[in-house]
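Usage

Read records sequentially. Each one opens with the input sequence:
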Amino acid sequence: MKEISALFAYILLAISAYVAAGMSQKRNNLLTKGQAYLNDYVKQWESIELTAADLAAIDKDITSFHIGTKVRAESKPHGLNELFTVIKLSINLLNPGANRLVLGKSVQAFSAALNGLESAQAQIGAEVKKTAQAAADAIRNTERNMLASIEASAESIQSIVSESYTLKEDTEALISAVSTEIEQTKNSVEIQFNQFSQDIEAAASGADAQFEEIRKFIRFVDGKILLGEVGNELELQIANDRISFLQDGAEVAYFSNRKLYVTDAEILHSLQIGGFAFVPRANGNVSWKKVV
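and closes with the structure output:
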């Protein structure tokens, strides 16, 4: 009977020890999970964007990037060594070396908004005042608006850039609007340029008159430059291989290949050839003598 009682007491002691050990383990697990939850709770999702140049168009050894491609970005000063997804491509059709790609990723970090809240509020207030003043000043100046968009499809890439100038003074008259549209397909690049201009009539008339005045003296004909007033019998013509003197449309003299060619020459005083010259005498005769 004593042995049974001792055995029963030993079993109760073992069960108590097992239950106590289990409760201690559960407490430790609960503490660990609580600490992990608090660590994650003070973190907020933040977005990181990086901009880089896409050199694939100018270097055949560099693989071209596409939307959704994973790119590794490494920067020891910033503590970065991550795989980022390409979320945006900026394509310059006329200058492939200027192509840009934007890498984006969301990470968990301590929110910067929780630090320095009072200074941030003061800075926001100052920026609001500064922006209001800038807006008031801009009303009295010319307003410039730009719109850029890139549309990509399976067949082509279309880039549209528009720009407008509006005078913000007594009236809101549209001064000018410029739009450029570039469409690239696998076979060709098509550029369309449209411009609308509304100007003061007096200024337009003055510009036209000034252009007509210049055109009277300088003209471009068949790749040649003609200097001389329209209707005048004397003109100077500049071509790739010679400079010609024209009289009534006929070439009477020209420079070419470091030589002067003249149909008829009249020397008023003297003519020097190398170290010798024809020099007139007092009696009306001409002497050929060495002058150097």
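Summary fields computed downstream for this record:
- The first helix runs from residue 2 to 41.
- Residues 73 and 80 are 7 Å apart (CA to CA).
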